[in-house]
Design brief:
This protein is an alpha/beta fold. It folds into 2 domains: 128 residues, Enolase-like, N-terminal domain (Enolase-like, domain 1), CATH 3.30.390.10; 235 residues, TIM Barrel, CATH 3.20.20. The chain is 36% helix and 19% strand. It has 13 helices and 15 strands. The strands form 3 sheets. Strands 6, 7, 8, 9, 10, 11, 12, 13 and 14 form a 9-stranded mixed sheet that branches. Strand 7, helix 6 and strand 8 form a beta-alpha-beta unit. Helix 1 packs across helix 3 and helix 9 runs parallel beside helix 10. It is globular.
Length: 390
């Protein structure tokens, strides 16, 4: 029995699984192609009629049982008891570890709780997370995906499309071989021009020796960072990669403050990359960023989902300083702006998030700052779920 409270409580939890099959067999990374774009959106309704939205990363069919379980547990909880609820989920799921789809399900719920609470106050989530440091964020194009035929002309077309949109920075997929990694990187810089910024992403698709050879072949191109060069479970080898001189970024495959603690403390990464839709939502992401700053590490959140995920990432980014020690020498905070084909990304919002003059404005409405097109979401949903107080 929960104690009586005058605070708004959760009265309904809904989730919507969405999927769109990709043409041409899909695209992805050196690790493998994906045949469809999927997402799971979460909607909570409170006792005072406020609605909040969130997004979970992962396969909808596998997320659904967790969302059902957590949704039932959430009914009647005050919306400001976010950390309490998160800790209960993590503690009660200890046998599942602190990482996995149960944390991704928690993430969507947590984002929705923050959205609802901020809407109740009439402010953006960033104001509740610690204050807004910026109202716009420079963006890099997450592009250059691996395709079934690996055609370099098609790859160049991808990069050119991003450049035509106004991007001057891009993160590309590599890890298909040392020569191919070099060629894809050269093409990207050729298209972006002399002032272009390149980042590369291995998606943990190589052993330490192969990544070392690939990184050495890229040093003169001065990538801004090399992302996920090794699997998250590998503890050794990171110092050997960092000795090459290219900053190492990682974290999208880690969950909660507990999963990030040792990699940060052991110095495995120069740039910490929590994903709000999988690491535990805003509650965990904010703690992870603070832990990164305690070890004097940069933060650049991972973002890969619909406009709801983008809005959540922008709210987090709006609160982060450029560097832990002084803004004058900091490096810019970037939004990862996925440019791969994904009709779900824009369809779920009444006003999609756009790039203008190389930057993306942080949505300035209450909560996440966006308006979800609920009619579109319900029309596109392949697996709706609703849990109500009786």
């Amino acid at each position: 029995m929960r104690p009586a409270t005058d605070r708004p409580v959760v009265t309904r939890v809904e989730s919507f699984a969405l999927e769109h099959t990709l043409p041409g067999g899909g695209y992805g990374t050196a690790k493998g192609l994906v045949s469809s774009r999927v997402c799971t959106l979460v909607k909570i309704t409170t006792s005072d009629g406020i609605e909040g939205w969130g997004e979970c990363y992962g396969v909808p069919e596998l997320l659904s049982p967790y969302l059902r379980q957590f949704g039932r547990a959430l009914l009647g909880m005050p919306i400001d008891a976010k950390e309490l609820f998160a800790q209960r989920v993590i503690a009660h799921s200890y046998h599942l570890s602190t990482g996995g789809l149960h944390v991704a399900a928690l993430s969507g719920i947590d984002i929705a709780l923050w959205d609802a609470q901020a809407r109740g106050f009439g402010v953006g989530v960033g104001h509740l997370l610690g204050g807004v440091a910026r109202t716009a964020v420079p963006a890099y194009a997450s592009i250059g995906y691996v395709t079934a035929d690996g055609d370099l002309d098609e790859f160049r077309t991808q990069i050119q499309g991003a450049a035509d949109e106004g991007f001057t920075a891009a993160k590309i997929k590599i890890g298909t071989g040392v020569r191919a990694d070099r060629k894809r990187s050269e093409i990207t810089l050729d298209v972006l021009g002399p002032d272009g910024q390149l980042m590369v992403d291995y998606n943990a698709n190589a052993t330490t020796d192969v990544v070392l050879r690939s990184l050495r072949a890229l040093v003169d191109l001065e990538p801004g960072w090399a992302e996920e060069p090794l699997p998250p479970y590998q503890r050794d080898g990171w110092d050997r990669l960092q000795a090459i001189g290219i900053p190492i970024a990682a974290g999208e495959s880690l969950y909660t403050r507990y999963g990030f603690r040792d990699p940060i403390a052991e110095g495995r990464m120069d740039i910490v990359q929590p994903d709000v839709t999988k690491c535990g939502g805003f509650t965990e992401a904010k703690l992870i960023t603070q832990m990164a700053f305690a070890w004097n590490r940069r933060v650049s959140p991972h973002c890969w989902g619909t406009g709801v995920a983008e809005a959540a990432c922008l709210q987090l980014l709006s609160t982060l300083p450029d560097s832990p020690f002084g803004e004058g020498t900091g490096t810019p905070q970037y939004l990862e702006f996925d440019r791969g084909f994904n009709p779900l990304r824009e369809a779920v919002l009444t006003e999609p998030i756009r790039l203008q003059d190389g930057v993306v404005a942080v949505p300035d409405g209450p909560g996440l700052g966006i308006t979800v097109d609920e009619s579109a979401v319900r029309r596109l949903a392949i697996e709706p779920l609703s849990i109500d107080m009786r």
